[in-house]
């Protein structure tokens, strides 16, 4: 019996070690997709390397990456030039992500924000600024804070479900609100509401103009 118990514990230890290795590799590969979405030899790729991406095996130490106490990626903040040409769909695999911020140079990143972001049910803060992003997922269900600034290509429509929103800043880009969004944003009691430079002329107590 003691040998059986020791053997079982050894198997559990090996399985646990394998799982941790797989977890580390999968998260690292997910983040590395951002670097791979830059052009080879580009300033963006060099910028990623300069803040430790891939060159440091500890992905929680990479610039712009924050992890929670369990070593899971909880926050990503990407600032030009260390931004990918497009946002990788694999970022939707970061299931513990609560905050995502990207500040580009008005051209990159481009393309849509991947539909996989809709599956990030813990995502509560989204900040997109000066990008060439051209679209958003239909729904981002649990956002508390939403910031869009100077994204000329992103379109006028916000994600459909903003029921939990507490703060919204949309500046210097076209904005169109559905009836439900007007009720949530204009008639709600948000902590912050700044819609200047969007074409909205009136919206409750929100800053407009």
From TrEMBL:
Keywords: Signal. Gene3D superfamilies: Ribonuclease Inhibitor. InterPro entries: LRR_dom_sf (IPR032675). The keyword Signal applies. It comes from the Eukaryota. This is Leucine-rich repeat-containing N-terminal plant-type domain-containing protein.
């Amino acid at each position: 019996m003691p040998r059986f118990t020791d053997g079982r514990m050894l198997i559990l230890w090996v399985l646990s070690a394998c799982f941790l290795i797989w977890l580390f590799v999968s998260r690292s590969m997910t983040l590395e997709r951002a670097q791979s979405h830059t052009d080879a030899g580009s300033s963006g790729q060099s910028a990623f390397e300069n803040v430790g991406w891939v060159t440091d095996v500890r992905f929680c130490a990479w610039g712009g990456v924050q992890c929670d106490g369990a070593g899971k990626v909880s926050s990503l903040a990407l600032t030009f030039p260390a931004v990918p040409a497009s946002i990788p769909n694999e970022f939707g695999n970061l299931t513990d992500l609560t905050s995502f911020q990207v500040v580009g140079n008005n051209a990159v990143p481009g393309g849509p924000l991947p539909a996989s972001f809709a599956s990030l049910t813990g995502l509560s803060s989204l900040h997109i600024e000066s990008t060439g992003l051209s679209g958003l997922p239909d729904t981002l269900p649990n956002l508390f804070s939403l910031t869009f600034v100077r994204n000329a290509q992103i379109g006028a429509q916000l994600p459909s479900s903003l029921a939990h929103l507490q703060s919204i800043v949309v500046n210097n880009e076209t904005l169109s609100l559905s009836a439900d969004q007007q009720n949530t944003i204009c008639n709600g009691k948000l902590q912050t509401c700044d819609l200047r430079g969007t074409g909205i002329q009136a919206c409750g107590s929100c800053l407009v103009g």
